[in-house]
């Protein structure tokens, strides 16, 4: 079924490689350097974030390069003026501060932009069915490599499918900011492109005040020490997804849950579970968790783990401003015995475990987060690694419109490295969900069977 990565690369023809800097303005972007907080340092050595947007675009390559590409570049430059740290780098603060890092922007810094065309099957790639993961990965760029002490934060690839569609792929170093900020940046660029030079969606402007993140218990040092210990114990830094070729047997599929199915899950869980906030997130993740555990055939007596990122913006005291630029996520864990999850009502056990984990976030940030990074890193190399969830339907990624209408498909491609699943809003149904998963072909076939069969129970 899946073609090799070399054939995917052979189908790609680079039309242009350039760099785009933030547009000049009467006021120089300030501050030039942003120290990393304890929320940021977690991501210093971790995987890159790869997201792909696919749009209908029934125009030739000549029309695109002459009539559309100049506006894409100029609007990107304008958006980067407001999000200028993304054009910079993450670096050590000084030679004498080995444990201190910062995002640094200097005049002239820029973002790598690759423009390409491909003869890959556009209609195949925008589907929900299992697709070759390598073909999708060819549509996102690699981050340029500098050195260990100066790492770029963002690269972009625009890929034309002549007379059919267009893809815009982003590769971002997670240390720069979280998905909330990145989605705002995507929407800002798209808004500027659609309006040919205006930025109506950048309201309010990003806030770069790092003093709003208070660290009374020095979580920064704890997290940095945990990361360095993990790297030393495991011989190497985890390889970013963009730098590692996935096996050709990996396929990327999208599973959907409509609002009726989600309500059915809530009704089922509420009828038998203990009291907790039975949210869309809880029941949807619980259902997918049970399906994946069944598909992988784990032994009944071992413990399965589920990990997700909790947004701390409103949980901090005082809360951070809505426009705060940076990471504000902390790991949250749920666990249950495989034997409980594979029962017909296993979704109830899964929902209770996830619901209890969320209820446990009501303590202060230091109490809730101390020790969590070391726990997470240990799980990554355990015999039964956790199912990790990334992204959120709250981002409304299908609202990112460059002037070509809503995307036909939005994917998080970096999930292939960890076997994570991604959540997003639905392109088709208000209140629905899309769940992206990358697995070997045989596991994906088993998951499809479990997912579709389980829906008959509610």
Coarse morphology: globular
| Domain module tally | 2
CATH homologous superfamily grouping of the largest domain: Chloramphenicol acetyltransferase-like domain
Compute the number of strand runs. 17
How many separate helices? 14
Low-confidence stretches: 1-6, 236-247
Average pLDDT, rounded to a whole number, is: 89
SSE map:
Blueprint: H1 5-10, E1 12-20, E2 33-35, H2 38-41, E3 48-56, H3 61-82, E4 89-92, E5 101-104, E6 111-118, H4 122-125, E7 131-132, H5 133-137, E8 150-152, E9 154-161, E10 165-173, H6 179-194, H7 219-233, E11 250-257, H8 259-272, H9 280-296, E12 303-311, E13 329-337, H10 338-341, H11 346-359, H12 365-369, H13 372-380, E14 387-390, E15 409-412, E16 421-425, E17 433-440, H14 441-454
Parallel strand pairs: 6-9, 12-14, 14-16
Antiparallel strand pairs: 1-6, 2-5, 3-10, 3-15, 4-5, 4-8, 7-11, 9-10, 11-17, 12-13, 16-17
Helix pairs in contact: 3-6, 7-13, 8-9, 9-11, 9-14
Can you tell me about this structure?
This is Coumaroyl-CoA:anthocyanidin 3-O-glucoside-6''-O-coumaroyltransferase 2. It comes from Iris pallida. One of its GO terms (molecular function) is acyltransferase activity, transferring groups other than amino-acyl groups. It holds the Pfam family Transferase. Keywords: Acyltransferase, Transferase. The model is unreliable at 1-6 and 236-247 (pLDDT under 50). β4 (89-92) and β5 form a beta hairpin. This protein has a 7-stranded mixed beta sheet with strand order 7-11-17-16-14-12-13, sandwiched between helices. A 6-stranded mixed beta sheet has the order 1-6-9-10-3-15. It has 2 domains: 5-243, Chloramphenicol acetyltransferase-like domain (Chloramphenicol Acetyltransferase, 2-Layer Sandwich); 250-394 and 408-457, 2-Layer Sandwich (Chloramphenicol Acetyltransferase), CATH 3.30.559. It is built from 14 helices and 17 strands. The two termini are 33 Å apart. α3 crosses α6 (179-194). By secondary structure, it is of the alpha+beta class.
């Amino acid at each position: 079924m899946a073609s090799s990565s070399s054939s995917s690369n052979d189908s790609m023809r680079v039309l242009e490689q350039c760099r785009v800097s933030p547009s000049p303005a009467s006021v120089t972007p300030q501050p030039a350097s942003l120290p990393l907080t304890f929320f940021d340092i977690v991501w210093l050595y971790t995987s890159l974030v790869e997201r792909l947007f696919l749009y209908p675009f029934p125009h030739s390559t000549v029309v695109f390069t002459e009539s559309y590409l100049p506006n894409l570049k100029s609007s990107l430059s304008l958006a980067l003026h407001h999000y200028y740290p993304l054009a910079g780098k993450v670096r050590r603060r000084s030679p004498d501060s080995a444990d201190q890092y910062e995002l640094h922007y200097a005049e002239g810094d820029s973002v790598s932009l690759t423009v390409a065309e491909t003869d890959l099957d556009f209609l195949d790639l925008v589907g929900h069915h299992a697709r070759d993961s390598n073909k999708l990965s060819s549509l996102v760029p690699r981050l340029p490599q500098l050195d260990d002490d100066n790492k770029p934060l963002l690269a972009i690839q625009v890929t034309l499918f002549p007379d059919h569609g267009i893809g815009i792929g982003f590769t971002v170093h997670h240390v720069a900011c979280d998905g909330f900020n990145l989605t705002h940046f995507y929407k800002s660029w798209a808004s500027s492109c659609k309006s040919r030079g205006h930025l109506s969606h950048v309201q309010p402007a990003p806030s770069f005040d790092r003093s709003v993140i208070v660290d009374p218990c020095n979580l920064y040092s704890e997290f940095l020490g945990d990361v360095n210990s993990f790297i030393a114990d495991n011989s190497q830094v985890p390889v970013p997804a963009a730098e590692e070729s996935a096996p050709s047997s990996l396929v990327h599929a999208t599973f959907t849950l409509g609002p009726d199915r989600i309500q059915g899950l809530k009704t089922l869980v509420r009828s038998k579970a203990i009291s907790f906030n039975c949210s869309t997130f809880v029941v949807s993740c619980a259902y997918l968790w049970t399906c994946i555990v069944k598909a992988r055939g784990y032994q009944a007596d071992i413990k399965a783990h589920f990990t997700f990122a909790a947004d701390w913006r409103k949980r901090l005291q005082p809360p951070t401003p809505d426009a705060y630029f940076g990471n504000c996520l902390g790991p949250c864990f749920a666990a249950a015995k495989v034997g409980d999850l594979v029962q017909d009502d296993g979704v109830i056990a899964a929902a209770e475990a996830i619901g209890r984990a969320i209820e446990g976030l009501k303590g202060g940030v230091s109490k809730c987060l101390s020790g969590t990074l070391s726990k997470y890193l240990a799980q990554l190399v355990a015999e039964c690694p956790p199912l990790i969830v990334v992204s959120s339907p709250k981002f409304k990624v299908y609202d990112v419109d460059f002037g070509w209408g809503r995307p036909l498909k939005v994917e998080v491609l970096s999930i292939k490295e960890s076997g994570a699943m991604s959540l997003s809003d639905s392109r088709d149904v208000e209140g629905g969900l899309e769940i992206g998963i990358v697995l070997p072909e045989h596991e994906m076939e088993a998951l499809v069977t479990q997912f579709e069969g389980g829906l008959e129970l509610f």
